[in-house]
Amino acid sequence: MTHGSPVRLFLDLGPLRDAPSFRRLWVGQSLSGIGSQMTNFAVSLQIYTLTRSSLAVGATGLAVAVPAVVFGLLGGSVADAVDRRKLVLVTGSLQAAMSVALAAQAFAGMSRVWPLYVLVALQSTASSIATPTRRTFTAVLLPPRQVPAGAALTSISFQASLIAGPALAGLVTAASGLKVCYLLDAISFSAALYGTGRLPAMPPTGGVTRPGPRAVAEAIRFAYRSKILCGALLTDLNATVLGMPFGVFPAINAAHFGGSTGTLGLLTAAPAIGGVLGTALSGPITRVSRQGRAQLVASAVWGGAVAAFGVTRALPLAVFLLMIAGAADVTNVVFRTSMVQLTTPDSHRGRVSAAEYVIGAGGSQLGNFRAGAVASLTSPATSALTGGLATVAGATLIALTLPAFTRYRARSHA
């Protein structure tokens, strides 16, 4: 074993050490991400408390997904036409304002559900513009060789928020009520806004386009003509639409593992735990050069793990398989993000990042709908099994039809 080889196994912290601007942005967004997950927890709990309806709780998914799909791509065209730092400050402030409004309605003791849907939809609209715009910062703040490590750090921040946010929200709700969750989320946005506010101006370079449908269509044509971008986005869409299993977790939990809320919580948390562990050990993957092929392999591993989860009746094995799936998912995200940021010219980066965001948000929701629909026609186990196998088949098909994507090598940078 050569000197320093153990360090190479772990997450590369170089971007946090070498780039103060990226470090401030990452810390602020990490704190804000935990706050956002606390709000997600509080909204679901408040709606269920008011309605006692799982359908009403599930409708929050539509309140998030529809604005993300409708406004995400248009927001990307705005990001390619204005100072991206200012755009994130404006949209981040709007998100904070919605959290303040959620806290206000909770403190006021409102008993209507529709204001919650409206506030969630408005917050999702702002997020659908802010999130893809913020992703463009990585390629500006970091040298190309550190972009994969930056993507891994962003991924572990998100995965950690999926664990820490709900856990903290549960404790806060038990001690002080869900209204405090909203309040803490609103406060957490100050960290994200501070990190963004300290950045330099970030006007788009390489030409400015007029925002609107024509600019969106141009970016879609650009991504379609690029075999690398097309392959990266299709691979992600394949994994989410065909393999997303969360929609059948409650039914599989009831059919295979006794149906207790404790086991359901364990199953739900397992992919995020796997994602954190996978990202923590992401040192080797940030140095992979054949990123297209590696993303396809990660997608196939995700699908295989989901398929095996669908048929197992041993809880420890099910949790382990979902952790493997979570680790494969974040690996997929790291490679996809790296290829999108490094192969897209700055003049198109906002719109292509927006397309990436829309595919991630819309594909996941569509995938959960597919899982539930197939389960209702067959069985929950069949839904997970066939979805996972279809994901493996889809990754194979992409490899065969887009050989340029499979052969792609990331450029070597000093």
Work out the count of structural domains. Answer: 1
Shape: globular
Distance between the termini: 24 Å
Strand portion, in percent?
under 5%
Quick check: average pLDDT?
86
Which architecture does the CATH hierarchy give at level 2? Up-down Bundle
Q: In DSSP terms, counting alpha (H) and pi (I) runs of 4 or more, how many helices?
A: 18
Task: List SSEs in N-to-C order.
Answer: HHHHHHHHHHHHHHHHHH
Largest sheet: none
Fold-level CATH name: Growth Hormone, Chain: A
Pairing-aware structural class of the strands and helices? Answer: mainly alpha
Low-confidence stretches: 1-7
Helix content, binned percent:
over 70%
CATH class equals Mainly Alpha
* Rg from alpha-carbon coordinates: 21 Å
Give the total of beta strands: 0
Would you spell out the secondary-structure blueprint of this structure?
Elements: H1 5-9, H2 14-18, H3 20-51, H4 54-79, H5 84-107, H6 114-135, H7 137-141, H8 147-176, H9 178-197, H10 213-225, H11 227-243, H12 249-256, H13 261-280, H14 291-311, H15 315-343, H16 346-377, H17 380-401, H18 403-407
Helix pairs in contact: 3-4, 3-8, 3-9, 4-6, 4-16, 5-6, 5-9, 6-16, 8-9, 8-13, 8-15, 10-16, 11-14, 11-15, 11-16, 11-17, 13-15, 14-15, 14-17, 16-17
